[in-house]
Amino acid sequence: MTVYYEGVDITASVLVRSCNVHDVAGGRSDSLEIVFEDAGKWFKWGPKEDDRIAVPHGGYDSGTMYVNTIVPEDGRYRILATSLPCAARRKEYRSFTGKTVADILRISAVNTGMDYAMYGVEGGYVIPYFEQENESAAAALDRLLMMESAKLKCVQGRYTAIGLLWAQGQAPIKTLRITADQRGVTYLNGTGRKKRRLSIITPSGNGIATDTSVNDTHESATVCSTAARDNAQAGRWARGLLRAMNRKAETLIMDTVFDPTMTAMARVDVTGGTDADGSWLVEEAEHDLIDETTRVTLHRAITSVI
């Protein structure tokens, strides 16, 4: 394992007691928690908020993280860092009128000193109205992208929008064989909680989405809290919200030896003759770079929402 601090390799100057990386998509930023044993020796680097730290290990790279919290603990220092700098965590009100997803990503990036990228997201569609409601730019983007059938991943100082259908269409990073009695695997089958339909109703527009894989005995949902300004926008956002809701109904959790290929939004295929068979997307990977273990949380890939 190598530790870079402000671009300098400090591995030989520190004793790392523990190092855990959370690689996530949607709702949270990537995070790094690292504990240095020799606090006095390490503190000569003059650590401060927003310093950059990165930890590559065994084919995996945490990417650039920004120091958020420094906690002294009996001769040790616990460093908490995230993939978002402080400016990107600032809460604000901001409205966007007649902007595309690409426009909103770009404006948010400029305002918070970040960059942006898009993969498989329809960036040219004009959104009549969207509002950042006393929340960070990342929180607002995550909320918008969920309705646009996409996920936000904050990595390497970049807001990255990843389309769900695009991610599901990529080649799997691996195919796993999972059996019913396999240790270290938990399958949470909540298909009974899936919604058949989701409607968005606002004074300016209505839209309905349907999951064709769910029968009519399942409940439907109605959302009245979006800012959809026309029927087209309401329909798009209804599909996005239904995809997000029904994906979470099935969760697969696996504890494995360290697996550097497991990163958020990667596709994994499962075989083995159980209800878990099929395609999944990695929602979160927790890598312990000292004990060399990985815990992966995946949600089901869904292509049946129209």
Q: Brief overview, please?
A:
The protein has helices at 39-43, 101-112, 137-147, 164-168, 231-247; strands spanning 4-5, 8-9, 16-24, 31-36, 52-54, 56-57, 60-61, 65-73, 76-82, 92-100, 115-119, 126-135, 150-155, 158-163, 174-177, 185-189, 197-201, 206-210, 221-223, 250-257, 267-271, 278-288, 293-300. The chain is an alpha+beta fold.
Walk me through what this model shows:
With 306 residues, the protein is α+β, with helices and mostly antiparallel strands. The chain folds into three domains: 4-83; 87-167, Baseplate protein-like domains (Phage tail protein beta-alpha-beta fold); 191-248, Phage tail proteins - 2 layer sandwich fold (2-Layer Sandwich), CATH 3.30.1920. Helix content is 16%, strand content 43%. It contains five helices and 23 strands. The strands form five sheets. Strands 1, 2, 3, 4, 5, 8, 9, 15, 16, 20, 21, 22 and 23 form a 13-stranded mixed β-sheet that branches. Strand 22 and strand 23 form a beta hairpin. Helix 2 (101-112) packs antiparallel against helix 3 (137-147). The radius of gyration is 21 Å and the shape is globular. The termini are far apart. The model has no long low-confidence stretch (mean pLDDT 93).
